[in-house]
Every structure is written in structure tokens, then in C-alpha cells.
Amino acid sequence: MTTTTAPTRSWYKRNEIAVTPWLFLIPGIIFFALYVIFPIFQSFWISFHEWDGLGEKTWVGTANYERLLGGDRKFSISFWNNVRWLALYLLAIPMGLFISLFLNQKVFGIRLYKSLFFFPFVISQVVVGLVFSWFYLPNDGLFDIIVGTVGIDVSGGILGNPNTATYGIIAAGLWPQTAYCMILYLTGLNAVDPEQVEAARLDGAKGARMLWYVILPQLKPATFIAFVVTIIGALRSFDFIAVMTNGGPFGSTRVLSFYMFEESLSEFGFRMGYGAAIAVVLFFLMLIFIAYFLWSMYQDEKGAR
Amino acid sequence: MFPTPIEKRSRQWQLGYQALLPVVLVIWLLPLIAVAIFSIKPEADFVNGNYWGMPSSFEMFTNYGKVFFESDMPRYLLNSVFITVPTVIGAIILSSMTGFALGVYRFRGNLLIFFMFIAGNFVPFQILMVPVRDLTLDLGLYDTKMGLVLFHVAFQTGFCTLFMRNFIRQLPYALIEAARVEGVSEWRIFVYVVLPLMKPALAALSVLIFTFIWNDYFWAIVLTQGPDSQPVTAGITSFNSQFRAAYHLMSAGSIVAALPPVAMFFLMQKHFIAGLTLGAVK
After folding, report:
1. CATH, range B71-172+199-276
2. pLDDT digit string (tens) for A179-235?
3. How many Å apart are CA B111 and CA A34, to the nearest integer?
4. Residue-range domain boundaries for chain B
5. Which domains are seen in chain A, by residue range?
6. What was the pLDDT predicted at A292?
7. Contacts with B51 from chain A: Cβ below 8 Å
8. Taking the mean position of all CA atoms in its chain, how far away is CA A21?
9. Are A115 and B235 in contact (CB under 8 A)?
């Protein structure tokens, strides 16, 4: 009896459960490999060459890296600006938490308020950057007028002064990022266990102690995501700089992502090899964080099984 | 609930809170309110240094009319639509498949592939820039919308796969097993059992990807140039060099450029936030 059914069951039918996932994965994997995975390795390869993007690549070994790490002033400025971005961008997390605590009430119209507070995140960074650059205009800008009333005068305006320009851009970046962290915490606060809060209240906990010992531990998943997106956002900062100062004044607002773009694709010529080397350094900087994120996620996955 | 619900406080507290809300909101949105006012001011206000005061006349129609009929803005907007919509469709199709494969089946390498998608999603754009630009040139797609769409689809597949896979994991697995027992083939399970249940995830991802791609600037300037294929984010910056100090036109242009994702957000708010806060609650 079985011999009559066996030939009708094709190879595919017999192995359906093993084969199907791969059939579903193939298109996605091909695309992702072609545009994301391979290019990472190609960038490594290119970084050992001198290349104008058109002609032949010339193998130069580690010369690009030696030049980069051996006293390229533009590189060290960019690197330290990246560190500033990282450190100050993290302020978005406590600021977002603060606003979410302020808004976590049930009064008339609060839903509309919440979405309006979140608004800045939806707008493109190009537009936010433009708006802030007007806000910072020397003499005519609202910022200059406000600080002018208390007698502070930033020469050249915030963005025209090499000492303040980077901080001005980071402040602009913090605006949408805070909104993002706020929405993460609002969602987190929604899920805080009310019984635990009541129990803690009966035990006399309130205010800051309550926040620190009862609420924040429950907000841990939200804090983790806020941390991930803020770090990635800080290291990806490009749009704001390109729009607000284009790296200036005197190159003081460059970060690695911007410097890389400038070296590889600017009017000064196409130094793709050197650009790729900068990208590789940025990649390793990011890899520290990526590895940590992946490790945390892996721990969760193991726990889930 | 934390902090203590305001209903439990005294009447003064409640009134104080209600009064404080709009004040804080106005301060928070001040930059946006400023552009909105800029965009309806006449040019003369900026010449006379009246930047932040009341508009001396109401020029909304002149300014927005100029943006729509005397600049390349409509072309840029249309380009953005033709870049964003195909990307959303492509990324959703690819990632619902990869998410299904990674979420439903147990096989060797499952977690490895999953983590490859997540990791790729976090890398800095700059490490992809030179090779992707090169690849796009080789394919003859440099300065075309297609070139941008292909890259965006590939890159967004990483994030979307993470999202879809985790969503499918939360579906009741018994449904799939029941279908198998009935003899339903695997791809039919995907189409008739899993896909209908994934509607919330599809909606959330669509709005998120729409916003991400619409707001993309970096790849727009790396892979395209000029009004033939550049999206509105890149368009607005060339607009900026065209109308240097014409703040009234720049503001009107910026508002027009920012409007589609804003509209998307307000229309699909629930899905948008569900997508963004994925994983913020365990």
C-alpha cells in the first residue's frame, strides 16, 4: 500500500518543513547580503588602498590608518566631537523620563498633549536642523536675543563660534531624541504594576525614593531601548551637521561620519580609500556598543527558550 | 500609577497642572511655532529685522504658492513619494517572509541569521557608503529612484525582520500546528493563517518605514543628485542655497516637506507608537 503513495509524495513534500524556511529567507538574505553585509567587508578592503572611486585601486597597506591615527588633526577633532555627542546625547534619556513623568496623568486632552510632545521626532532632521539654525542666527536669532537680555554675547552666534557650535548642534539633536525617549517611557509607565506601587505607597515610599527603587527597575526594558537608540543616534549624527554648519566653522563641528563623507565625496576630490579607513574606525567604535546590545538581546533569547 | 494621579490631589494642584500643560507645550514646540509664523510672513519683515514679532501682513498664499508653482518643490515631493512607497512595500514583503521563517521554524542557524539582521541594522551608514555607491553605479542606477529604493529595501529589511519575527513569536503556535495537522501546506499557512494575524505589525511597520525613508537625507545625497530623482529632504537643502536668506519661502518649503510623515503619524498614531516602543515593555 505504501508503495503507491510514496512516488506521489515529491521530495519537496517530504522535506517541506526543513526547506520552507530557507525558501522564505533567500530573497531577504540575498538583498541584505548584497547591500549590507558584503559592503562592510568591501570597505575594509578599500581602506587598504588609495582610490579615487573611478580608476585602479593602488594597494597602500596600512598607510591610510597610519596617517589617520598618526596626527591627522581633522580626525582627532572629529573623534572628540563624537565623544561629546555620545556623552551629551545620553541626556535625552533622563530628560525624556522627566517629561514622561510630567505627562503621565489622566486629564482631559492628555492624549493630544502626548502626541504633540512627540511631534519633533516625526519631522526630518534636515528640517529640525534648518529651524534651529534660524533660532541660533547671530543678532537676529531668538537665542541671541534671549541671552542678549542677560548680557551674554556669543561672538559670531552659536553656530559661528568654534567653541559653541558643536554644543548648539547637539542641543538641536536632543530635541527629537528626548521626544523619542519620552514615548518609550510613557509606554513603560503604562505597564508599571499598580499593585507594587500601592504596596510601596503603604510602606511609605514616595517621590524620588519610589521612583528609584520601585518604578525605575520596572522601566528597565524601556531604558535599555532608549539607551540603544540614543547611542546609535549619536554615532549616526550627520544630517544636523551637514545642514547646520557643513562641518564649520573651521571644521570644528566635524564628526567621524561627516569627515568620512567629506573625504570620500566632496569637491576636494574623491579619497575613497582614506574615507573607508575613517568608516572602519567608526565601525569599530560602534561595534563595542553593538556587541553589548546583541549580547543583552541574546541573554533574553536564551531566557525565552 | 506613578506619579500620584492628579485627581487625588487638591483642587489647586489640578488647576495648576491643567494651566501648566499648554505653557510647557508651547515652550517645547516653540521652534515649530516659529517656522509656522515665518512661513506666513512677508519678505519685508525679514528685511526690516522683524524676525520674531507678529507678521506685518498675512502672506500665507503668496509664500506657499511660490513654493508650489515657482520652485522644484513639487518634483522633489513626487520623487519622495516614488521612493518611499515602493520601499515600504518591498521591505514589508521581504521581511514578512524572513520574519515568518525565523519566527515559526526551528533550524540550525536560525538565531545566527536573526542576529545578522539585527547587527546589520545597527552599523554606521558610512561603512556601507563607498561600496553601495559603487554597486549602484555598476548597476547603472546612480541618480535614479530605483537605486535608492533597492538600497532602502535591503537595509530596512534588517529592522523589519527583527520586528516581524518578534511579533510572529507572540502568535499562538497552536494555530500553525492545527493547520499542519489539517494538511495545509506551509506557504498556505503563511498566506492564510499567519499574514491575517500580522495586520497590526504590517500597519506599524508601514508607518515607521514611511517616516524613516521620507526623512532620509544621507543616502539621498550619496546616491542621487538633482531634481530628477532627489527626494524632498535633499531638495530642501538645494532650495536653501537657491533662496539664501528667504526665510519665509524656506519655512513654507520645510513645512511642506515635513507634512506627509506628520500626517501619517497623526492618522496612524496607535500603530506608529506600537512600532517605536516595541520591546519597551516585557
Report:
1. 1.10.3720.10
2. 999 999 999 998 888 888 889 888 888 888 888 888 999 999 999 999 999 999 999
3. 20
4. 16-58, 71-172+199-276
5. 2-40 (no CATH), 73-304 (1.10.3720.10)
6. 92
7. 134, 137, 140-142
8. 32
9. no
* Contacting residues of B for A175, CB less than 8 Å apart: 31
| Chain B residues touching residue A38 (CB < 8 angstroms) | 131
Handedness of CA A163, A166, A172, A175 (dihedral sign): negative
Whole-number pLDDT of residue B130: 92
Q: Which regions of chain A does DSSP assign to beta strands (E)?
A: 49-50, 58-59
What's residue B7's pLDDT? 81
A228-268 pLDDT, tens digit each = 999 999 999 999 999 999 887 888 999 999 999 998 887 66
Q: How many Cβ pairs within 8 Å bridge chains A and B?
A: 289
Q: How far is CA B89 from CA A124, A277, B85, B149, B220, in A?
A: 21, 35, 6, 10, 19
ipTM of the complex: 0.91
Is residue A2's pLDDT more than 50? Answer: no
Q: Which residues contact A154 (CB under 8 A, 6 or more apart)?
A: A138, A144, A147, A161, A164
Task: Say if CB B114 and CB A21 are below 8 A apart.
Answer: no
Residue of A196, A192, A176, A183 lying closest to A97 (CA atoms): A183
| Mean of the per-residue pLDDT values of chain B | 89
CB A204 within 8 A of CB A213: no
In angstroms, the Cα distances linking A231 to A8, A175, A177, A250, A290 are: 56, 15, 11, 26, 10
Task: Provide the grid cell at A252.
Answer: 570644528
DSSP string computed for A115-127: HHHHGGGTS-HHH
pLDDT one-digit tens code per residue, A139-171: 788 888 888 888 777 777 888 888 889 999 999
Residue-wise pLDDT for B185-218, tens only, equals 888 999 999 999 999 999 999 999 999 999 999 9
Name the A residues in 92-131 with CB < 8 Å from any B CB. 101-102, 104-107, 110, 113, 115-120, 122-128, 130-131
| Residues facing residue A58 across a β-bridge | A50
Is pLDDT of A1 > 50? no
* C-alpha cell belonging to residue B243: 533662496
> Residue A3: what pLDDT?
47
Residues of chain B with pLDDT under 70: 243-245, 282
Other CB atoms within 10 A of residue B53 CB: 11
Which chain B positions have a beta carbon within 8 Å of A290's beta carbon? 119, 122-123
- Between CA B180 and CA B90 the distance in angstroms is 28
Is the separation of the CB atoms in B145 and B107 below 8 Å?
A: no
